[in-house]
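Lab notebook page, bench 4
Experiment: in silico fold of construct C2
Operator: M.H.
Input chain length: 74 residues
Purpose: comparison with the prior construct
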Amino acid sequence: MENIADIVHIGELIAVSKVFHLNPFQMVTSIEKGLVEVFETKEAFLAKYGSKEIYEELEDWCELNNGKVFTKPK
């Protein structure tokens, strides 16, 4: 199992948890279980999902100002 602290800063975790309506513990658990994906760059996100107006396959997604993208697939 990856160390979530190596992927996500606590500030990022708190910010995104508010968007996904989860608490930070639920966010960590969701990332560990693969229920939330973390992309280091928008390019990595676009490589997987493409550039679209609406992402039908995602329940929600969030792009941070540092370029990281968090997704919650359906």
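Observations: Residues 10-19 form the longest helix (10 residues). The chain has four helices and three strands.
Next step: discuss at group meeting.
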